[in-house]
Please model this.
Amino acid sequence: MDINIAIFASGSGSNAERIIKEFEGTLLKPCVVFCNKPNAFVLERSKKLGVPAVVFNREEFSSENFLDKLSAFKIDFIVLAGFLWKVPEYLIKAYPNKIINIHPALLPKYGGKGMYGSHVHEAVVANGEQETGITIHLVNENYDEGRHIFQAKCPVTPNDTPETVASKIHELEYEHFPAVIAQYISDYKV
Ligand code: GRF
Model:
């Protein structure tokens, strides 16, 4: 039976693209991209890949009627791939343990409000960390605090800059995110 996945992304969408491509020909169907930024590059990517996109604003996201937009695609699981807004409680309740996020650091370090995108890598370098990594976790009511599903690490050297750290992190994300999503969904027990 097909499993329908909504990908929420509001930036470049390189992870979204990887997921869509890797799931091609499997039972996992990333059938829609949800995006809160009308000019985000992820919308170009989804168009090219033939995946429909839904652009929405804060008001729409804060209302429970938003669930109708997901029901229209019979969504089973939600993947956040570079999506920054806090997920409202009604959505977490409607998709219990079915919302997966990726964070570009080794949570609980470098998590929480304000810790997103380049801010994370800047803080990692400024603090002289010797390693960083990715955390794939479930989403609950608090930013970056849901149960961890997976972590992977990479070294940070004295020569690294926030930009080089970002590219190491992206490599880790591409390597692991699609596979971890697939494994989590196949292990999921109702
Ligand atoms: C990723 O590093 C992800 O961990 C973070 O935002 C970035 C999104 O990159 N939450 P992209 O839009 O998938 O290229």
Remarks:
- Residues 4 and 146 are 22 Å apart (CA to CA).
- The helical segments are 14-22, 41-49, 58-62, 66-71, 89-94, 118-126, 162-187.
- The beta strands are 3-8, 28-35, 53-55, 77-80, 99-103, 131-138, 148-155.
- Residues 102-190 form a domain with the Rossmann fold fold (CATH 3.40.50.170).
